Amino acid sequence: MLLSVQKALQLQGERLPFEAEVPLEPFEFCGDQLRFSSPVWVSGRMVGIEDRIELEGEIKAELLSTCVRCLKEARLPLNIPFTEIYLREEDPEEPDAFLYEASAVDLDQMVLGNIVMNLPVQLLCKPDCKGLCPTCGKDLNLGPCDCDRSPVNEAFAALRALKLEDEDTP
């Protein structure tokens, strides 16, 4: 999605409002397929300072994926504040700046980068999701199952058969 910054370049130093709808494609992150429930909205203010464009605002989106515990749909609403810089050419003093040409900046990479940086380690359908029983596969959010849940450490199973002599016997 290209955002025109022509006015910001013409009206140097003036904070101008902007908003844009950014249609992003589904993407894979850490093995999970993530998609958006609707287009991503970006709004804020832009300022032109010589050939430099500064964008400050908020990204609003809702991500859809699979809950890592119970495999149901997980929804993650996002409201991400951002401040980003766009330059016409690379500057070693601004290694995180995005580049732009003519009088438009491309929002796609900036938006996707900010979303990825704000993702949780695990996407859950709800914070207290109990997941699936590892034995029978029942959704534990719907109630307990009848499986034996006593912890078993198979690494020491051979020790159960070991008979120790009484220490008092010679």
Describe this structure in words.
The chain has helices at residues 6-10, 108-117; strands at residues 2-4, 16-22, 27-29, 32-36, 40-49, 52-66, 73-87, 98-99, 104-106. With 170 residues, it is mainly beta. The chain has a domain at 2-117. The relative contact order is 0.16.
Uncertain segments are: none
N-C termini distance = 85 Å
* Total number of strands: 9
Mean pLDDT: 90
The major sheet is characterized as: 7 strands, mixed
Order of helices and strands: EHEEEEEEEEH
Share of residues in strands = 35-45%
Radius of gyration, in angstroms, nearest whole number: 27 Å
Helical run tally: 2
Q: Return the structural class.
A: mainly beta
Shape: elongated
Topology, pairings included?
Elements (H helix, E strand, L loop, with lengths): L1 E3 L1 H5 L5 E7 L4 E3 L2 E5 L3 E10 L2 E15 L6 E15 L10 E2 L4 E3 L1 H10 L53
Parallel strand pairs: 7-8
Antiparallel strand pairs: 1-9, 2-5, 3-4, 4-6, 5-6, 6-7
